[in-house]
Amino acid sequence: MARHQGILTAIVKPSGGGMPGQAALIHTEGYTWEDMTIQSGAALMYSLGGGGGRFGDGRTDQVRCCEMTEESGHNHDEHESEQEGHLHTEDCDHDMEFTSGRVPLVQGSPERLSTLTDRLKEAKTYREKRAAATPDAPVARDQALDAMLEVVDGKMPVMISVTTGAEIQSAVLWAEANGIKVVLYGCGGAGEIAEWLAAKQVPVILAAVYGQPRADQPLDYFYGLPGRLAKAGVKFGLTTNDNHDVRQLRDQAGWASTYGLGSENAARSITYWTAQILGIDDRLGSIQPGLDGTVILTDGEITETSTKVLRAWIQSREVPLENRQTRFYDKYRNRPMPKRIW
């Protein structure tokens, strides 16, 4: 169904919390995994606990922190409610900054990133030991740490699942402190810190277009989020962040187009911009001489729900759009008409 809707490439990632493994970039057509693979080890996946899911920043952390505002300074007695959407953390910090959305800019990396930090340190130590190894004192190869070295060297980004504005800021500050290339995904709270994200030039894979607004947010809060990020200058792409609704990616871009992003930018958010973020724009994402020739032919704007994909090519090879649902449709559309008995 994904290919039938024009989705010709996809990121597949392991599920689970913490650091479940690496993501791979694939074609959506092929007989074997070798046929389908575009790039193995496209990113190292890590979850900061928010899940980065389609429900965006409607979920807030459960721990508390004292309220702090620019006007009143530090206040240990009053607390913001979770309904007002402020992230609460366990310890108070007098040196926190605040953005225009009043989300605290967390100083330092949270404890939930400590596992990843420790693994990076292990990888660096492993490299030093391998470099100092001798035939008499060899150091066994460790495939997991070899993969981590690609992150240390900047060859592979860490794709961190985040939801709230404070989680996003924590991940970015951690990446800066450790010199790691990072891509954020999920990011329902990105609208709260859009200008800050734009200044940091951190790319975002947004999975919140179909998010559920809180009671204090307008109904179109998440539909309009891509438009607000684009206006602020944040580089982003769209994702469904699941495997069973991938075919709805074009629909999500259509909603974003209607609520401020515009049709051209909406199309870029599921093609060229995403390819840039993943570092594959020299192969995919646009129609230019020398690229792979992975394109679709439609009968209208790709962000319109009524638009049909007529033909598709992957690496200049035409691929079928047939699937089980189209076969059922053709079968029962052409079934013999019953004979009347009266």
Order of helices and strands: EEHEEEEEHHEHEHEHEHHHEEEH
How many separate structural domains? 1
What is the number of helical segments per DSSP (H or I, 4+ residues)?
10
Cα(first) to Cα(last) distance is 42 Å
Spatial shape: globular
Q: Give me the count of strands.
A: 14
Helix content: 25-40%
Uncertain spans, ≥5 residues at pLDDT below 50? 51-109
**By CATH's scheme, which homologous superfamily applies?**
Metal-dependent hydrolases
CATH fold-type name: TIM Barrel
**What would you report as the Rg, rounded to the nearest angstrom?**
23 Å
Q: Under the CATH scheme, which class?
A: Alpha Beta
- What's the pLDDT, averaged over the residues? 80
Structure description:
The chain is an alpha/beta fold. It has one domain (3-329): Metal-dependent hydrolases (TIM Barrel), CATH 3.20.20. It is 29% helix and 17% strand. The protein has 10 helices and 14 strands. Helix 6 crosses helix 7 and helix 7 (249-261) crosses helix 8. It is globular, with a radius of gyration of 23 Å.
What's the topology here?
Elements: E1 9-12, E2 21-27, H1 33-36, E3 37-47, E4 68-69, E5 73-74, E6 97-98, E7 104-105, H2 114-132, H3 143-152, E8 158-162, H4 165-178, E9 182-186, H5 194-200, E10 204-206, H6 225-232, E11 236-238, H7 249-261, H8 263-269, H9 272-278, E12 295-298, E13 309-314, E14 317-319, H10 324-333
Parallel strand pairs: 3-8, 8-9, 9-10, 10-11
Antiparallel strand pairs: 1-2, 2-3, 4-5, 6-7, 12-13, 13-14
Helix pairs in contact: 2-3, 6-7, 7-8
